[in-house]
C-alpha cells in the first residue's frame, strides 16, 4: 500500500484571528472576476488621466493662477456642502444634542437654586449674617 504524502504548508495554513491576512493570501486580491478586473482597470485609467492632466498643469511654463485638482474639489464639496450622508437625525442624536445643549444649563440652574435655598434657610434660622454687597 502506497503511503500518502504529508499535506503541504499551504493546506495546513489557518488564518490567525489576531493578525490580518496578508494581501498575497487574501482571496479578494488574487481571485477576482473579469468584471472586477475590468472595473479596476477603468479606475486606474481614470486616475492616471487625472494625474497626467494635473502634472501638465503643474509643470506648465505659463501656469494659470489656480490649479484645480478635481479630487480636492470633490473632497471639499463632500466635506462642506453634502452633510446629510454623514449625519442623520435619529432619536439617539436628538437626545445627545438636547443633553449637550440643555444639560449644562439645567445643571447650573439646579446648583445655583440649591445654593440660594440653603443660604435662605440659614438666614431664616439666624445662622448666617448677610455681608454687605453692592452687586450680589
Automatic annotation (TrEMBL):
Signal peptide: none annotated. It comes from the Eukaryota. Pfam families: NDUF_B4 (PF07225). Its main location: mitochondrion. It is found in: Mitochondrion inner membrane. GO terms for cellular component: mitochondrial inner membrane. Complex I is composed of 45 different subunits. Belongs to the complex I NDUFB4 subunit family. Accessory subunit of the mitochondrial membrane respiratory chain NADH dehydrogenase (Complex I), that is believed not to be involved in catalysis. Complex I functions in the transfer of electrons from NADH to the respiratory chain. The immediate electron acceptor for the enzyme is believed to be ubiquinone. This is NADH dehydrogenase [ubiquinone] 1 beta subcomplex subunit 4. It comes from Catharus fuscescens (Veery). The lineage of its organism: Eukaryota, Metazoa, Chordata, Craniata, Vertebrata. The gene is Ndufb4.
